[in-house]
Amino acid sequence: MDVTEAVVLAKEYVSKVFDEDKITGMGLEEVEFNEFGDEWEITIGFFQPWNVSLKSGSLSQVAFGGQPEYVGRRSYKVVRIKNNDGQVVSIRDRILEPKK
């Protein structure tokens, strides 16, 4: 499996698992291939509804045909995928280190 296939698989998996949470702003954050385990580790970031709010002035943008802007804390999940068969092994939180 190449990197693009692994990323598509990870995004689809996160989308299904968190479907009821109505996540938004999903995107690729990091990719790493673990040669020892022959697995892809794909980090996907997204917003969960309870961690976001509309940015001030965003509703006026919508009134003029624009897209709303959100502010909040993103969630990050690492999806581990077997390289040989595309099976998802796990999904876990990616904890960010605090800024110094």
Descriptive overview:
- This protein is an alpha+beta fold and 100 residues long.
- It has a single domain (3-93), classed as Nuclear Transport Factor 2, Chain: A, CATH 3.10.450.
- It is built from 2 helices and 4 strands; from the N terminus they run αββαββ.
- It has helices at 3-17, 58-63, and strands spanning 24-34, 39-54, 70-82, 88-93.
- A 4-stranded antiparallel beta sheet has the order 1-2-3-4, with helices on one face.
- β3 and β4 form a beta hairpin.
- The longest helix is centred in the first third of the chain and has 15 residues, at 3-17.
- The chain is elongated.
- The N and C termini lie far apart (38 Å).
Distinctive features:
single chain; alpha+beta; Nuclear Transport Factor 2, Chain: A; elongated; 100 residues; four-stranded antiparallel beta sheet
